[in-house]
Specification:
Length: about 375
């Protein structure tokens, strides 16, 4: 169940109730349906209604969906026409990234009141290391409760939080009791918590990986932990070491507040392999819609555009183009992507994934942001 402010104080202790020295105290805070919630906050007529942020035209893509819309199956990165078919009463709102960035800044001010060790993942989520209790609040759980309350008071928005002794578990926990929830995974509980999760909850496990795992008899964390490292490496290659550690609740990564962003991008894995030129071009436009919004969120300026495809035999190919100056706008980003795609046509075989990235970023070293996650997917 979600923890509430009037619950008894609890810290990151082991199952015996004893303090566990030497472990980090990590909080992952994730705003609830952030973009859509901002729109509902600013327009009372939208409250309680299914809302999608993004374009409603034929090539539009959902950037975010309210919880009311999610009940109909609407989700981010879904084509707008599909979303409208699932939810005929869906209300589309145009993205307002200047407003989202302003609200995100207010939220980060709350984070930095409690710790300097803040690692933003996007405008609406971040890791915090609160091992040092700066204000003597008494526990990581209580700090998370205070943060959620301060965010609500400052922005009139709700946030969910996960508290644990590493980043992997804290991120899993923040999703456990959404929306407006709190979940704590204490030392000694990580492996058992992961064991009960469906394999799809593991970061980086997409639909195709899930299908492959199911064929191998892996449906839950418990199934995964039963496989030895040799089996995992034979079937999942370089992904095996991550799976082996994650199944045991192990993650030694620190919270890093000063990692410099190298690129901004995203990719889409298809349910059915595609190879036709018109469908590939349509897909590229959909990917551009999502990636350009991420570029705007990050205020990124870059000179290199890369188009990546993964064929149905899992071989990867990519083409890139570097300009003498930064990409001017979405139209130029799209045109470059289409040009790279034309260079690759006709494809030697169907593809199962397409992605685009903007790199050789300029003006970002002054900002304390993270690297883009290579596993980040549009679906």
């Amino acid at each position: 169940m979600a923890a509430h402010d009037d619950e008894p104080d609890c810290d990151l202790q082991d199952e015996t109730g004893e303090d566990t020295p030497g472990l980090r105290k990590i909080i992952h805070v994730d705003m609830d349906a952030f973009f859509a919630s901002v729109e509902q906050r600013d327009n009372p007529d939208l409250r309680g209604r299914p809302v999608a942020v993004g374009g409603s035209s034929g090539r539009g893509v959902v950037a975010a969906a309210s919880y009311e819309a999610r009940e109909f199956g609407v989700k981010s990165a879904m084509p707008s026409v599909t979303a409208k078919r699932l939810c005929p009463d869906l209300v589309f709102c145009k993205s307002r990234f200047d407003v989202y960035r302003e609200v995100s800044g207010q939220i980060r001010d709350v984070f930095r009141y409690h710790t300097d060790l803040v690692e933003p993942l996007s405008l609406d989520e971040a890791f915090l290391d609160v091992t040092e209790d700066r204000h003597g609040i008494g526990s990581a759980t209580n700090i998370a409760q205070v943060i959620r309350r301060q965010i609500r008071e400052t922005t009139q928005l709700t946030a969910s939080a996960g508290v644990s002794y590493n980043k992997f578990l804290a991120k899993l926990a923040s999703d456990q009791n959404k929306p407006d929830g709190l979940c704590v995974i204490r030392p000694g509980e990580g492996a058992s918590f992961v064991a009960g999760l469906p394999i799809r909850r593991f970061h980086g496990v997409g639909p195709r990986a899930e299908e492959k795992m199911n064929r191998l008899g892996i449906a839950t964390g418990a199934d995964l932990v039963a496989k030895d490292i040799a089996f995992l490496r034979a079937n999942f290659g370089s992904f095996a070491d991550y799976l082996y550690r994650a199944a045991r609740g192990i993650d030694l990564r620190p919270v890093r507040s000063n990692r410099i962003r190298k690129s901004v991008g995203g990719e889409r894995t298809f349910h059915d392999d595609i190879s036709s030129g018109p469908l590939l071009r349509e897909t590229l436009h959909n990917i551009v819609d999502i990636v350009w919004e991420r570029i705007e969120r990050a205020e990124a300026k870059g000179r290199t555009v890369t188009l990546k495809v993964k064929y149905n035999d899992f071989q990867i190919s990519s083409h890139a183009r570097t300009l003498s100056s930064v990409v001017a706008d979405k139209a130029q980003f799209t045109a470059i992507g289409l040009g790279l795609l034309e260079e690759m046509l006709p494809l030697p075989r169907p593809i199962r994934l397409m992605g685009m990235t903007l790199s050789k970023l300029e003006g970002v070293p002054k900002k304390k942001v993270r690297h883009d996650d290579p596993q980040l997917s549009l679906l």
